[in-house]
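Input set for joint prediction.
Command: fold jointly, output tokens.
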Amino acid sequence: MTATTTASTELAANRRDIRPGRIIAWTLLFIGGLIMITPLLFMFSTSLKTSGQVYDLRLIPAAPTLDNYVRVLSDGRFMQWFFNSTFIALTVTLSNVFFDSLVGYTLAKFEFRGRYFIFLAILSTLMIPTEMLVIPWYLMSSQLGWIDSYWGIMFPGLMTAFGTFLMKQFFEGVPNDFLEAARVDGLNEFTIWWKIAMPMVVPAISALAIFTFLGNWTAFFWPLIVTTSKELYTLPVGISSFSAESSIQWELIMTGAALGTIPTLLVFLALQRFIVRGVMLAGLKG
Amino acid sequence: MASANATSPAGPSRFWDRLNISTKRVIWAWAFLALPILFYTGIRFYPTFQAFWLSLTNWDLLRPAQFIGFANYEKMFADPMFWKVFQNTFLYLIIGTPVSLVISFVIAYYLDRVRFMHGFIRALYFLPFLTTAAAMGWVWRWFYQPVPIGVINGFLASIGIAQQPFLRSVDQALISILIPAIWAGLGFQIIIFMAGLRAIPNTFYEAARIDGLGDGAILRKITIPLLKPTTVFLVVFSSIGFLRIFDQVYNMTTNDPGGPLNSTKPLVLMIYQTAFSSYQMGYAAAQTVVLFTILLIVSLLQLYVLREKK
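tokens >
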């Protein structure tokens, strides 16, 4: 007993004292981290250079200018793509938060025949790769006139098995007493879910929302297939289409790439704790 | 859901009132599930079966689909391009998965012990995960350009190493695409590994130290074995990711997707081109069935490995 206590205080002391090994490890980690963001640094740096300075590979531009940003943003199409991506990612996220939670809650808290079957059926869709579904989705979209529409881009992702599974795990942790009490008070089941159960799983909802938003903001494969007119492109598809435009003007392309990256970086910096915790939650439970 | 409104005094509500509580709850449950069941049936299950069916037809968007048996599969397995693509896909997997896992484990292992500026350093590693391949494809293509544009060749020139062709070379292009793919996924793997490391109770380490085990022995005998579920999850997650690689390849070889000479083309890009450039929908569907089978095997292996342990 005493041995354990001394050992743990020793450990705690070790943790605090600064040994050369620690300093080397920290320095290497720090350098590695800088290498990780080098592509981002060069991207931002080049976006601040004039076309004449692009060949100057110094990281800090001699005369930084925001001209490229003005030029790219004044082209209405870029703003259109930006709006498309934001609108689509937000709508799909709201849909997932609503339906995945509702289904997860139903599967966690209701007793009925077929519950386990429904759960397994939804879970089994995790095994189906998107690539296998795009051809039938494309067929369906062309028959129903969904090609080149927001709905066409959004419909495949409105609900996900991953989100449903995540939410079910969390709703199982909500004590039944609360729900029973609300039932005795005469609330209907929908209100119980929305007003009582949902507020108790806010960390899971935020993890789901962050994941869905990020996934849809960066989504490329399906939007590339289902959009044909430039007005309907999402930001990644638009950025990808730059090359066909003209001879490569790297400073403008880097500006476009930077503008496509800034929103997620800002969201991350604002919500770092949530996002890291969300990734951990999703990774461990999912 | 409107019919479930118990307070309205109309006829249906009397019927509703007569039901006992558990029957009411069953009705609620199915009302909640109605739309999702439609969704999963219409947008997940039906298309899955349709993909299998289309793989047995010669559908090409112009003529109605005709049943042709296994002709698509025979054509595929006789197609040298398919085997080239198959080989590329497994190269992405076989190089990408171990390399990214070893790097991310080493970083997570040391980062977990760092207190000073922990959040900041973690953020540096995590930021690339938040980028989109379309944007980063451009940055990396620019990096790989010859001098005077390319950053990497510029650096090599400054230390006296010969210029490298990178994306223009049949031998180097695949690796040149794999590096950004690994780079973008590293942050996620590091975070998951750190979550796994945190989940190991401290008492294990304390006991090991009392027994006089050194850092290396603790790593081998405690950390790595206890981290197995996390490692298996990441192996499967990243394997599936590399088997489905598309965005990076498409965005770094835009002028000749999958080139040069198909040396970087993965299965999903072949599917994309078969379906949406040459409109051989039936043939493309057969290729997706192959992808599905490979991914299914990987997932089942995961279940098997984890079950054996418990």
